Amino acid sequence: MIPFIDLRREYQEIKDEIDQAIQRVLESGWFILGNELRQFEKEFSSYIGAKYGIGVNSGSDALYLAVKALGIGRGDEVVTVSHTFISTVDAVARNGAKPVFVDIDPETYTIDVNQIEKKTTEKTKAIIPVHLYGHPADMDPIMEIAEKYGLYVIEDACQAHGAKYKGKKVGGIGHVGCFSFYPTKNIGAYGDAGMVVTNDKELATKLKMLRNYGSPKKYYHDLVGVNSRLDEIQAAVLRVKLKYLDKWNERRRKIAKLYNELLEDTEIITPIEKEWVKHVYHLYVIRHRERDELQRHLLKNEIKTQIHYPVPVHLQKAYLGIRVRLPVTERISQEILSLPMFPYLTDTEIEKIVMVIKKNVSNG
Questions:
Q1: What tens digit of pLDDT does each residue of 179-236 get?
Q2: Strands laid side by side in the 277-278 sheet
Q3: Please, which pLDDT band fits residue 363 given cuts at 50, 70 and 90?
Q4: 8 A C-beta contact, residue 269 and residue 287
Q5: What is the rounded CA–CA span in Å between residue 147 and residue 134?
Q6: Three-state SS for 162?
Q7: Average pLDDT of the chain, as a whole number
Q8: Residue 247 Rama label (left phi>0; alpha psi -120 to 50; beta)
Q9: Whole-angstrom distance, CA of residue 331 vs CA of residue 130
């Protein structure tokens, strides 16, 4: 069986460093809001090119707390996409604001920047572009629209650690950047973890309070906050992994290049990389009109795949109250298929995956 992702291979490669990092925390006797977190916040925000990093419980909480810290709530609107993991939209709804959906670019699957301004009203307070699958959204026009209308830009970079837009790492371009360290991400914890990065000192201070019961110091509470803290063991693990992130991203890029080359003479639509970005291939997503049949064929041949995402957010039961037609999103959701992608996937495995695909699809 070729797995969709195999985190055991990664662990075996860096086992000694990981074990030592965990041991260091256990021996310190300090498990919440300690030195490991402080160091990781500095190291990761510096890696992204932002001044401040605020470690939180998950990528979902990073998004939720970013929206909350910016004062976005009831009566406000936030422009975003429906082709994303649901936490992007939940972050808006959980704060009482209304998500306003725009369609996606049919090549990059990120937000169609030409539709944003049409959906902007006096109620709009922010735009949440999603750097989906590791490919950055087109940030320059987004920032221009935000400046024109006085909007915040919250980057959902939960799938794009280390990805670059015109030479700048994503997450550090908008007013706030949100990251997930879910175990399967390009840099993943051994549990849930997330981070918000920003260059705004006041906002960083507010986020630090919000993640810890709205508390500036123990037993004093200035805001109504939550309990959303990145713990010391996860921070220590992530500090080890951060050193390998660029190397792992380069391997992902090589895997994508090999997939692209081997699938070139088929009718499969392979991912593209715009000339102004550096794609980090959190996922390698192909398209085929007989997607479901292809997925069954691969599984029968012991190759695991996934679909990111089979049902767009605006068609989920939770959001059926928002009536909108998004033709590109709706069409693509029926055709996309994520092939195995992780740094320790071998060339031999990739060749086998493509061979199996070629037995099911015709030449292009």
A1: 999 999 999 999 999 999 999 999 999 999 999 999 999 999 999 999 999 999 999 9
A2: 168-169, 164-165, 277-278
A3: low
A4: yes
A5: 25
A6: coil
A7: 97
A8: alpha
A9: 19
Helix pair angle (232-242, 35-48), 10° resolution? 40
Residue 78 main-chain phi, psi, to 5 deg: -130, 125
CA distances to 101, 111, 159, 355 from 156, rounded to whole Å, are 15, 11, 8, 35
DSSP, res 363: B
Q: Write out the H or E segment, with its range, that includes residue 358.
A: helix 347-360
Instruction: Detail the DSSP E strand segments found in 276-327.
Output: 277-278, 284-287
Please tell me what DSSP assigns to residue 175: S
**Mean pLDDT, range 30-57, rounded to an integer:** 98
Q: Is the pTM of this model over 0.90?
A: yes
From 256, 285, 251, 281, select the one nearest 268 (Cα to Cα).
Answer: 285
- The answer for residues whose C-beta is within 8 angstroms of residue 128's C-beta and 6 or more apart is 63, 78, 79, 80, 81, 88, 91, 92, 153, 154, 155, 156
The model's confidence at residue 128, banded by pLDDT at 50, 70 and 90, is very high
Amino acid letter, 91: A
DSSP 119: G
Taking 60 as the threshold, does the pLDDT of residue 295 lie above it? yes
Identify the burial level of 17 via C-beta atoms within 10 angstroms of its C-beta, where 0-12 means exposed, 13-18 middle and 19 or more buried: middle
Question: Do 87 and 66 form a contact (C-beta atoms < 8 A)?
Answer: no
Strands (E), 191-240: 194-198
Token pair of 203, please? 């906002």
Under DSSP, the state recorded for 57 is S
Distance from the first to the final alpha carbon of the chain: 28
